[in-house]
Design a protein that fits this description.
The chain has 180 residues and is mostly helical. It is built from 8 helices and no strands. Helix 1 packs across helix 3, helix 4 packs across helix 5 and helix 4 (86-96) packs parallel to helix 6 (133-143). The longest helix is centred in the N-terminal third of the chain and has 11 residues, at 24-34. The mean pLDDT is 89.
Length: 180
């Protein structure tokens, strides 16, 4: 339930498109879903300075912007149709975990911190590497076991304490095979 597909296949099964590069719109949507905030995002009223956000993505970009999880590619553009890089998505997730850009890590070298805390394993160091929706899923899944910078509570524990995620959800997520 943390990750939505791009549609269904001919048999009605979700198509997650794990081998396709995600856009910034999709990545922010996945991030907000990971946080269990999809409904809040969809029902909220959000203001952003961005003029290029697709209508379907406005609630997610708005929520992420209002909560300090994302910024644009300029003062007025989000770059939502652009492919997201590994370091951009790692920056989103590290912000969720309480880390600050410029203080705890540099956004263009976010993998250094994500490797150090054990969320990633060194595979996202190359700036021009291919980054896929499967990678977003893997990073998001690994983020569930990461502690917030300020305390020992993991993201999954925080989501459970807020009734946004259950122990059964966590078990399914951990046991679900992900090969990318």
């Amino acid at each position: 339930g943390l990750f939505s597909g791009t549609g269904t296949d001919v048999e009605g099964n979700p198509n997650f498109d794990l081998d396709r590069a995600p856009t910034r719109h999709e990545a922010v949507t996945m991030l907000v879903s990971l946080l269990g905030k999809k409904e809040e995002a969809m029902t909220g009223t959000w203001d952003t300075p961005f003029t290029d956000v697709a209508n379907w993505a406005k609630p997610f970009v708005g929520y992420a912007y209002a909560n300090g999880l994302t910024s644009g590619t300029s003062a007025t553009t989000f770059g939502g149709n652009d492919p997201i890089t590994a370091t951009q998505y790692l920056t989103f997730v590290l912000k969720v975990l309480g880390y600050e850009v410029g203080t705890d890590f540099q956004w263009n070298r976010a993998w250094e911190l994500s490797d150090r805390i054990g969320m990633t394993d060194g595979r996202y160091r190359e700036p021009n590497q291919v980054f896929l929706r499967g990678d977003v899923t893997l990073i998001s899944r690994n983020a569930l076991d990461q502690s917030h910078k300020e305390d020992e509570q993991t993201l999954s524990e925080k989501l459970m304490s807020e009734n946004l995620f259950t122990a059964e959800d966590y078990k399914k997520t951990v046991e679900s095979p992900l090969v990318i």
